[in-house]
């Protein structure tokens, strides 16, 4: 056989170990829709379908934590009709899908600023967390009205108040203590952050927690994302060598 010839039966791809925590920036709903002459609202609706499929796939693959960027603190600058659409989709997602998520032992957590939200949305988010709090299969972290700089600023404000009250000394404010005052301090940092639609930036998502995350950017628009795309991103993650600033390669999971 020549040096370049491929064996006639290439070995099957090895099943991979799932990263423990995957976070996704679900981008490209608008471009997906405009490429088809559809409204942006329709793009977001198809985005929710892709989300359902992805949550199911994440559970099947064995991911323990899945964080999704659903509405950013900066999304308020979109036209009011689009904001209404996104709020409506969140309401419907929780009303229609919560029972099934609960049945599948999914624990829902929410990060972001809840105080500025419509009271009904706040109640739904609280209810989703309350109902699913004892579930143990997949934790779905919904980043809603979320911005990483705002999250870090909230942590700084809490610590500043404790310093002012004399409870802690300024020298006690370490990276660990800031981490412990973020919105969900008990969760592990993401091993893998995926952004769809070909954009290559974090856009104020999990800036603190992403310090050692692997970033994978895929060209797929979010409504077309599915289990195969998730597995492709995980395969890319496994090709990376994670060193966490040290010398010895480590796996994140
Ligand atoms: C980015 O597409 C996506 C969003 C702003 C929000 C993501 C929302 C969903 C997938 C549906 C809502 C789900 C819940 C649970 C509320 P884009 O509009 O920025 O797309 P573009 O960059 O192509 O315009």
List keywords for this structure.
single chain; 253 residues; alpha/beta; Undecaprenyl pyrophosphate synthetase; 6-stranded parallel sheet; globular; binds farnesyl diphosphate
What does this structure look like?
With 253 residues, this protein is of the alpha/beta class. It has one domain: Undecaprenyl pyrophosphate synthetase, CATH 3.40.1180. Helices cover 40% and strands 14% of the residues. It contains 7 helices and 6 strands. The protein has a 6-stranded parallel β-sheet with strand order 3-4-2-1-5-6, sandwiched between helices. Residues 1-7 have low confidence and may be disordered. The site of farnesyl diphosphate has 18 residues, from helix 1, helix 2 and helix 3.
Averaging pLDDT over every residue, what do you get?
93
Write the CATH architecture name: 3-Layer(aba) Sandwich
Content-based structural category: alpha/beta
Spans with pLDDT under 50 lasting ≥5 residues? 1-7
Q: What is the general shape? A: globular
Order of helices and strands: EHHEHEHEHHEEH
CATH class: Alpha Beta
| Fraction in beta strands | 5-15%
Number of strands: 6
End-to-end gap? 39 Å
For the largest beta-sheet, the strand count, sense and barrel status come to: 6 strands, parallel
What's the CATH topology label? Answer: Undecaprenyl pyrophosphate synthetase
Give me the CATH superfamily.
Answer: Decaprenyl diphosphate synthase-like
Within the largest sheet, what's the order of strands? 3-4-2-1-5-6
What integer value in Å does the Rg equal?
A: 20 Å
| Overall number of domains | 1
């Amino acid at each position: 056989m020549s040096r370049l010839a491929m064996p006639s039966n290439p070995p099957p791809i090895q099943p991979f170990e799932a990263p423990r925590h995957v976070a996704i920036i679900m981008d490209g709903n608008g471009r997906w829709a405009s490429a088809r002459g559809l409204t942006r609202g329709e793009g977001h609706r198809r985005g929710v379908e892709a989300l359902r499929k992805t949550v199911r796939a994440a559970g099947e693959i064995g991911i323990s934590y899945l964080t999704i960027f659903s509405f950013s603190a900066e999304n308020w600058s979109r036209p009011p009709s689009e904001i209404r659409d996104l709020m409506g989709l969140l309401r419907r997602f929780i009303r229609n899908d919560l029972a099934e998520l609960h049945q599948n032992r999914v624990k829902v957590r929410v990060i972001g600023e809840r105080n500025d939200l419509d009271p009904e949305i706040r109640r739904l988010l609280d209810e989703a967390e309350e109902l699913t709090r004892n579930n143990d299969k997949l934790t779905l972290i919904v980043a809603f009205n979320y911005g990483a700089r705002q999250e870090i600023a909230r942590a700084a404000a809490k610590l500043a108040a404790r310093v002012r009250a004399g409870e802690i000394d300024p020298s006690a404010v370490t990276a660990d203590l800031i981490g412990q005052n973020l919105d969900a301090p008990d969760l592990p940092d993401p091993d893998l952050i995926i952004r769809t639609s070909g954009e290559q930036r974090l856009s104020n998502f999990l800036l603190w927690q992403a310090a050692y995350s692997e970033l994978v950017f895929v060209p797929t628009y979010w409504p077309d994302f599915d289990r195969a795309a998730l597995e492709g991103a995980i395969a890319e993650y496994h090709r990376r060598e994670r060193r966490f600033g040290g010398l010895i390669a480590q796996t994140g999971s």
